[in-house]
Amino acid sequence: MKKSRRRDKPIKLYSFLGILLLFFLSVNGLGGCGEVTEKKTVSSSRESKGSTLYVVNAGDGSLLAFDPPQNAANNLQSVLPQGNVSPGRRFPEGVTGPAGIFLDPTTDTLYVANAGQDAILIYENASTLNPSLGLAAATRTISGPNTGLNRPFAVIYRPENGQLYVANTDDYRILIFDENCPGAPATLDGDISPCRTISGTSTLLDYPRALALDTGTVQTPRDILYVSNMGGNSILAFNNISQQTTQGDVTPSRVITSHADAGQTESMLQLPFGLFIDSADDRLYVVKSGETCRRSSFTRRRASKGTLPPPAHRIHHYAAPRRSGS
User: How many CB atoms lie under 10 A from the CB of residue 10?
Assistant: First the structure.
């Protein structure tokens, strides 16, 4: 069995810098480094819930919420928080070393990977929680020895099938909790066991840091879990992730690296830190923490097995995504 290795130095650096910012607008969740502009229009029916900016602030162990102005109306530019603004809400209760976050906009539920306490905190009705009134405690908490949680750094919930995916950094495992698993409780809560676990030498998992779930589109459904593999400077893709057969010591469907040319042996994906999949545009974005926190993007038609050519483009800290050739 692979011995657990603690790599606290880069984690502490990012904790103090406070750059682990995850942005949720309308139907998309994004793990990133810095500021990202959502290119899709936010519908007016979603503005009251879907335009809040949530940030996990690992430096002081807090969850921050930047809410839109009350009089935002339907103007997207007025809805988004801008400039030197204070967070409207802060959730300090029980949060110790928050590392990952995911918002399910269909139910207004916020999932927080709390690495400091080996727990997943679940906040229902997240947009209406009011810390000043004492209404900011987690609705549900997944924790305890049966959960197998070991410094969870990423979490994703799939509402259509009730599956919760968690990346364990310290023992190199992907845990899958499933509401429909035989013997599972009606709701994911407490000291529950994962329905499936992906682990072992064949998985190539080495310090998994972020997750991105690609469910595709209505026309082209997909079932792929992407894992940023910091220890291997690569991105691992596991197909058919919702199926019960995808568990144990399984081999990744693809291993994505990036080389400048055929003669280069070292991956350009230096310490991949964050991931985001744009299923509609069929594009995967990667945060490389080993190179001044830049983002790279890859289209799937180029993401064949093995090594990829250089990314379609590199995006510096505050640049917005562009299509190739634009």
Answer: 15
